[in-house]
Specification:
Blueprint (H helix, E strand, L loop, with lengths): L2 E4 L9 H16 L3 E4 L13 H12 L22 H13 L3 E4 L3 H10 L14 H9 L5 E4 L6 E6 L3 E6 L7 E3 L7 H11 L4 E5 L6 H11 L5 E5 L2 E4 L5 E3 L9 H6 L4 H9 L15 H7 L10 E3 L1 H13 L3 H8 L13 H9 L8 H9 L19 H17 L5 H8 L1 H6 L3 H13 L8 H8 L1 H14 L1
Parallel strand pairs: 1-2, 8-9, 10-12
Antiparallel strand pairs: 3-4, 4-7, 5-6, 10-11
Bound molecules: glutamic acid.
């Protein structure tokens, strides 16, 4: 059975790159009907941010990446928060010492600092690597603070095969005797994630490519314990576009890069999920880029993951989001848009009609106030706006004629809906010898004050109602 995990460190908001890792990890297990585990990696106590675990959990919930095991849902491999598993790591570290693959190091902070001052890149000089058993026991008995380090092979090469990047090799001489257990009794990420991945039965380790070159150290741990190595699936880098056209690692300077910020900015979770699924993965034999989560589960295979960096394109996301919004049913749209509405909508405005018109014209929910402002009150506009080459309106008298004729017609209409308005105004075209487009242009500018609007003249009038429509036409006539 395929078992994957998402193992975030609760150090802040949910970066889009982290969400992509969670998504791919989820899809890889779910494609095979496997299990997906959430594990919180909080052993770096200095980087913890309060509330970050809740953000992680709520993001997974909102995006539908349901985990089969995890901190709040439990499971046979718990606890799922590393700080609650401290004893386990110490036990395994000691095992490793007994097996000769790790050692106690009693070097003081001062000694290590001095080493660093002498040679900043040299790393640890393996001073304690060959202490005798008696020396170690004596120091332990005296209560000397210690760390446990991994005993790296001094020569040879360590290799593994990554499912995306292929064979990765590292000369063992380049590997530091890294710390596995810290002086505070907490393990390092380098150690505990290996122990947990093994104990939790993880078959595929899915994570960012920044771990590609540290993984030789991790496979040495698996080998030392005699555990079978998992499959490694490192994901391509996520880049952002810079103003000068170059790209660099996706970060805040490229825009909103946390899931929460994007949602607050009016992006739909399902659009975000769909879009990031494509950042590093390409569906096979697919005509479409639109996938529900279930469709992604069915389509997602590791061989579709690319090793080339993926560029996060905000414009593409915006387009995606628009497509998702346009397809929402009206009730759902209303439900989603409501929290974004800051302006007061007056009584005369037909909300249902207005939202139906706006739904297909907005790309993100936060555009709503700006887009509906002209329904609420007529914006300032210049009468030059009436003149229009395409509709052959080159003088204000033509406009005046249209509006003057339209006024009594509008006054006479009882049921002020789109169809009635349209059929009632149609005879004007013949009377004035003008094309429908030209007549409607004049009326639309008068009732909206804008050259481009969601909806045509009659649809806008239906939204703002009879009194307001007439008021706006009279205002235009005065202005002319
Ligand atoms: N806690 C690590 C991180 O957030 C996890 C890396 C991994 O998945 O192994 O980067």
């Amino acid at each position: 059975m395929t078992v994957t995990r998402f193992a975030p460190s609760p150090t802040g908001y949910m970066h889009i790159g982290n969400l992509r890792t969670a998504l791919y990890s989820y899809l890889i297990s779910k494609h095979d009907g496997g299990r997906f585990i959430l594990r919180i990696e909080d052993t770096d106590r200095e980087r913890l941010v309060e509330g970050a675990t809740d953000v992680i959990k709520s993001t997974l919930k909102i995006t539908g990446l349901d985990y089969d095991e995890g901190p709040d849902v439990g499971g046979e491999h718990g606890p799922y928060v590393q700080s609650e598993r401290k004893e386990i790591y110490m036990e395994y570290a000691k095992k490793l010492v007994d097996m000769g693959a790790a050692y106690y190091c009693f070097c003081t902070k001062e000694r290590l600092e001095k080493l660093h001052e002498e040679d900043a890149t040299g790393g640890y000089d393996r001073h304690c690597r060959n202490l005798s058993r008696e020396e170690v026991e004596k120091k332990l008995a005296e209560g000397t603070p210690f760390v446990i380090r991994q005993k790296m092979p001094l020569d040879g090469v360590t290799s593994y095969t990554d499912s995306v990047f292929g064979e990765i090799s590292m000369n063992n001489s380049e590997l530091q005797d890294q710390i596995l257990m810290k002086a505070d009794g907490y393990p390092t990420y380098n150690f505990c994630h290996v122990v947990d991945d093994y104990l939790m039965g993880i078959t595929h380790v899915v994570r960012g490519s920044e771990y590609l070159t540290s993984t030789p150290k991790y496979v040495l741990l698996y080998d030392a314990f005699g555990w079978p190595r998992p499959n490694y699936v490192h994901l391509p880098l996520l880049m952002g576009k810079n103003a000068d056209g170059s790209v660099s690692k996706l970060s805040k300077r490229h825009g909103a890069v946390s899931f929460q910020d994007l949602v607050c900015d009016g992006y739909l979770p399902e659009a975000i999920t769909n879009y990031i699924a494509l950042l590093g993965w390409c569906p096979k034999n697919s005509e479409t880029e639109f996938f529900t989560l279930d469709e992604l589960k069915a389509a997602f295979t590791i061989d579709g993951v690319s090793k080339s960096p993926a560029v996060f394109d905000f414009e593409k996301l915006l387009w995606f989001n628009g497509e998702y919004i346009h397809k929402l049913d009206d009730d759902r749209f209303l439900e989603l848009i409501t929290p974004f509405i800051k302006s007061e909508i007056p009584e005369n405005v037909n909300r249902t009609k207005m939202f139906a018109l706006l739904k297909t014209r907005i790309s993100k929910l936060s555009e709503i106030d700006e887009r509906m402002a002209f329904f609420i009150s007529l914006p300032d506009f210049d009468k030059e706006l009436f003149l229009n080459k395409k509709n052959k309106i080159s003088d204000f008298d033509t406009v005046k004629a249209v509006l003057t004729e339209a006024l009594p017609i509008l006054n006479s209409i009882d049921v002020f809906d789109n169809d009635t308005l349209f059929t009632s105004l149609m005879p004007l075209t013949e009377k004035l010898g003008m094309k429908t487009g030209a007549v409607m242009w004049c009326i639309r500018i008068a009732v909206s004050g804008m050259s481009a609007t969601p909806g045509g003249a009659t649809e806008i009038m239906e939204v703002i109602g009879k009194a307001e429509s007439i008021k706006r036409i009279e205002f235009a006539l005065n202005m002319l």
